[in-house]
Specification:
This protein has about 270 residues and is an alpha+beta fold. It has two domains: about 15-215, Bira Bifunctional Protein, Domain 2 (BirA Bifunctional Protein, domain 2, 2-Layer Sandwich), CATH 3.30.930.10; about 225-270, SH3 type barrels, CATH 2.30.30.100. Helices cover about 25% and strands about 25% of the residues. Helix 2 (about 85-105) packs antiparallel against helix 3 (about 180-205), helix 2 packs across helix 4 and helix 3 (about 180-205) packs across helix 4 (about 205-215).
Length: about 270
């Protein structure tokens, strides 16, 4: 992987995980996703653009992502693979599970993703630590059909400067190390896990089913009573029962009727 890196970000070990891919680390940028979307037609699968100072990041549903300089990781990863439409729809979920595992390791816990409930994914791909958001993910399609997988991770923001009352950071959750050290550890694990999962989806069969099974096991929404705000402005309350083969969250309402929801903003109703 060739590496035009800025002095503010370390030479990441991710540079060794994708042959021919490009690792770019600007000192600051408006949006790593916007930058990589523009570069996508010229760069190969697995290329990464990363910074510790993103000034105009966006999240799902066009929300802004608050990112204090030097305390958060903004990373965008280019996926160029022969995926069918269903598997492309799984990319945001795969990215969420991959980041969940990366954060799990950064916290120094080598326990099983299937059994540890502290770090989980809120469908489709918000990563939470003890129910508080530490990472958001946004996937966008580039002009050449490749997909840019973007993630923002709160690294060392102290508790009194977190962007919302329902957010957290790796440092607040007990991770040790500087922002650059934590960013490097998270980036390496995330990058490798996403590329491995994409390869499995392309291979299909048992390999792809293993990826989907892992995504389901890392999803903390399953089994929860939830409120879902739908794109048309309406909302519903129901029990989340699973993730179907199209990546939709499956729900059962109070009348016992089951359905799948492809797009929506989910809130866990802890006491419902």
């Amino acid at each position: 992987m060739s590496t035009p890196a800025s002095p503010s970000f370390p030479q990441s070990r991710a540079a060794t995980t994708a042959v021919g891919a490009v690792f770019t680390a600007p000192t600051t940028t408006g949006s790593t996703n916007a930058d990589l979307l523009g570069l996508a037609p010229e760069q190969p699968h697995g290329s990464v653009l990363v910074t510790l100072d993103q000034t105009a990041g966006r999240g799902r549903l066009d929300r802004s992502w608050s990112a204090p300089a030097g305390e958060t990781l903004a990373v965008s990863l280019l996926v160029r693979a022969d995926l069918d439409e269903r598997d492309r729809g799984w990319l945001p979920l795969v990215a969420g599970a991959a980041m969940r595992d990366a954060i799990h390791r950064a916290l120094g816990d080598e326990g099983s993703a299937e059994t540890d409930g502290a770090v989980l994914v809120k469908w489709p791909n918000d990563v939470q630590i003890d129910g508080r958001k530490v990472c958001g993910i946004l996937c966008q399609v580039a002009s050449d059909g490749s997909v840019v997988v973007g993630a923002g991770v709160n690294l060392t923001i102290p508790a009194d400067r977190l962007p919302t009352p329902t957010s957290t950071s790796l440092a607040v959750a007990g991770a040790h190390g500087s922002a650059a050290e934590l960013a490097d550890a998270v980036l390496v694990a995330f990058h490798g896990a996403v590329l491995e999962a994409v390869a499995a989806l392309v291979a299909g069969g048992a390999a792809a089913e293993t990826v989907r099974s892992h995504v389901r096991s890392a999803c903390g929404t399953i089994g929860q009573r939830v409120r879902i705000e739908l794109p048309d402005g309406t909302h519903l309350e129901a029990e989340a029962t699973g993730i179907d083969d199209d990546g939709r969250i499956t729900i059962r309402d109070r009348a016992g009727v089951s359905r799948g929801v492809a797009v929506g903003d989910v809130t866990h109703l802890r006491y419902a």
